[in-house]
Specification:
By secondary structure, the protein is mainly alpha-helical. It has a domain of 47 residues. The chain is built from 4 helices and no strands.
Length: 119
């Protein structure tokens, strides 16, 4: 088992190296041709750039924008404290309406278990 894992690690290392070399060659070729084909270069750069969306400012409970890290942390804490509070009171009802007619006890004989397990 261990030898197969070591073989897998060796193959993965070989594959990762080949993939890395191929990517380096492609990027080098793209950079060299950037003057003659700027659209391809720009498109590749845009695909690798991290996209960021604007996120509005964090507001406290009164609706005022928070300025410091402490204010932001307390506003987020208050928001999630209100949103995710779980009441762990009596989770089971005293009387279940679905079990008005309880099932009889199920009796399983050892012969039945052996019969099913031999299939």
């Amino acid at each position: 088992m261990e030898t197969r894992y070591l073989q897998y690690l060796k193959e993965r290392k070989t594959y990762d190296g080949a993939q890395s070399d191929s990517k380096k060659r492609y990027e080098l070729t793209l950079a060299q041709k950037s003057k003659t084909c700027p659209k391809a270069y720009y498109g590749y750069e845009q695909s690798k750039a991290a996209t960021r969306e604007d996120i509005g400012c964090i507001r406290d409970a009164g609706g005022n924008p928070t300025l410091t890290s402490l204010e932001k942390a307390s506003a987020l804490q208050q928001h999630y404290k209100e949103s995710y509070t779980v009441n762990l009171g009596n989770t089971l009802p005293a009387h279940s309406f679905t079990t008005e007619c309880p099932m009889d006890k199920l009796l399983i004989e050892p012969q039945e278990v052996e019969k099913i397990s031999k299939r």
